[in-house]
Specification:
The protein has 383 residues and is α/β, with parallel strands linked by helices. The protein is built from 11 helices and 15 strands. It has an 8-stranded mixed beta sheet, with helices on both faces. Strands 1-2-3 form a 3-stranded mixed beta sheet, with helices on one face. It has a two-stranded antiparallel sheet with strand order 6-7.
């Protein structure tokens, strides 16, 4: 007859498929009953009806079979809110300290990844949703490409990807021995997005944080980006798992913060700014979207969301102000039709130049790879 200690020790070899920590350290093992060679295990799952319950049960049976226990009954329950909070705090502490104890070999940890031949990696962030992060990401990529840079976009908004739609992409990425090849837009911008990997783009991705975090790292690691001057990361709103994964895992050059004129947006966006500062990620600049609208008839600028506050906000948080972007119905029209590369912006060329200038400052000099000149490499013409 095996002791409880021997059984629990064997269960340390059972790894949660999402969190990649063993079920003992996660406090998922709630009870162990031993009746001669028959063992009953009670496991508390992080959510009721977890789709991976069968996988965990099977792994438990295999782990106990290794120590000679052939009759195993696995019962499941769900963690209480208090227990979930304890797990969340433990994961945050592990991420903050950079520890990797308890991670299965080959599992995704939080170690910082290398640059993979990418000169600059910029995350586009905002604590607030609906401020135009995806639009800012796409227009920044378009303008950088017009200047002759090699550019890529990693759509890190796993549950709400939009970059494929904005650029009119439907082709699936192709796997090669050298890695997954990102899909290219008509001007040569390389894009990887969850939308391009799903069989049905309308189906929701109902995944918990650890799966999303691991997938973001895989989209970076497993994709053959080639040599890029700029990789832009389109992040979801908030200051939770996905931004934390990007801030701690990817060798970021810095972040571009997107805001709008409302005080509410300013309040929530400041959280993202403080998060970046807490993790020592440089703020390359603040872009104020939806700052005004220009009347088609008289040309008057109307500040329909109130006076722009981006410049004042930039001063308060000691960050560079990149400029104000107007509301333009053409943006929605072209994005809906996958033709964002056709958009002619009067303000984004200057915003892009300001960001490039700040990248050079934070990189302590000029980029290691100079822009590809229009004369040496002719880019596709946007029709």
């Amino acid at each position: 007859m095996k002791s409880r200690e021997e059984i629990v020790d064997a269960l340390r070899g059972v790894i949660d498929p999402e969190i990649h920590i063993n079920i003992v350290d996660l406090n998922m093992v709630k009870d162990v009953k031993i009746n001669k060679n028959d063992v009953e295990i009670l496991i508390a799952l992080t959510i009721s009806g977890c789709p991976l319950a069968k996988t965990i049960s099977s792994d438990i049976e295999k782990a106990l079979a290794k120590i000679g226990i052939s009759k195993v009954s696995v019962q499941t329950t769900a963690m209480t809110q208090e227990e979930l909070e304890q797990v969340r705090k433990m994961l945050q502490q592990r991420m903050a300290s950079g520890q990797k104890q308890g991670f299965q070999h080959g599992a995704v940890g939080i170690d910082r990844l290398d640059s993979k031949g990418i000169e600059n990696i910029i995350a586009i962030v905002s604590g607030k949703g609906g401020v135009g992060k995806s639009f800012t990401t796409s227009l920044l990529a378009v303008e950088l490409r017009k200047q002759g840079y090699e550019v890529g976009i990693l759509d890190a908004d796993i549950t709400g990807p939009s970059q494929a739609k904005i650029f009119g992409l439907t082709e699936r990425p192709v796997g090669t021995p050298q890695g997954v090849l990102p899909v290219q837009t008509k001007t040569g911008i390389k894009i990887i997005s969850m939308q391009l990997l799903l069989d049905d783009a309308k189906k929701p991705t109902i995944w918990r944080g650890p799966i999303i975090n691991n997938l973001i790292r895989q989209l970076y690691l497993d994709v053959n980006w080639g040599d890029l001057h700029y990789l832009l990361i389109d992040l979801p709103p908030g200051t939770s798992d996905a931004p934390l994964t990007v801030f701690q895992s990817l060798p970021l050059t810095g972040v571009v913060v997107v805001t709008t004129p409302q005080d509410l947006a300013k309040l929530i966006v400041t959280k993202s700014v403080n998060m970046a500062k807490a993790l020592n990620v440089p703020i390359l600049g603040i872009v104020e979207n939806m700052a005004y609208v220009v009347c088609d008839h008289c040309g008057e600028k109307m500040e329909i969301f109130g006076a722009p506050k981006g410049e004042l906000m930039a001063k308060e948080i000691d960050a560079p102000y990149m400029g104000a972007v107007p509301i333009d119905p053409k943006i929605a029209e072209l994005s809906d039709n996958g033709m964002i590369e056709d958009y002619q912006s009067e303000v984004f060329p200057e915003i892009t130049n300001n960001i490039v200038s700040n990248v050079q400052k934070f990189s302590e000099g000029a980029p290691k790879v100079l822009p590809i000149s229009w004369k040496s490499k002719k880019l596709p013409i946007v029709k």
